[in-house]
Design brief:
single chain, mainly beta, 4-stranded antiparallel beta sheet, about 45% strand
Length: about 130
């Protein structure tokens, strides 16, 4: 059973930055692809970004391209989401998810993931 724990959320002003972390009980080297998702009140959970098992491939939702960067450090069993130029519409609970069998073209689809963290709140407000 893979356990995921998100951290790094908080309150930030518009235009500010946050870095989220997703720590895994084990990533077993390059075995799991990882995605970041978010869910705002009253809305569906949506894919934000994802990274392949080795870290060589990344995908982003159009709404965050150029502002968010996903990366991973398999030696530390951690995946990061650097979020810059934050907007109020980025306010949501952010979740990381992992799965060993992700097709990169489908990695922003929440149905593809079997393991999920509990989420961390990100609030962008002045």
């Amino acid at each position: 059973q893979l356990q995921l724990v998100e951290s790094g959320g908080g309150l930030v002003q518009p235009g500010g930055s946050l870095r989220l972390s997703c720590a895994a009980s084990r990533f077993t080297g390059n075995y799991y692809a990882v995605g970041w998702f978010r869910q705002a009140p009253g809305k569906e959970r949506e894919g934000v970004s994802c990274i392949s098992r080795g870290g060589g491939l990344t995908n982003y939702a159009d709404s965050v391209k150029g502002r968010f960067t996903i990366s991973r450090d398999n030696a530390k069993n951690t995946v990061y989401l650097q979020m810059n130029s934050l907007k109020p519409e980025d306010t949501a609970v952010y979740y990381c998810a992992a799965d060993p069998y992700i097709v990169q073209a489908q990695c922003l689809m929440k149905s593809e993931y079997i393991y999920w963290g509990q989420g961390t709140q990100v609030t962008v407000s002045s």
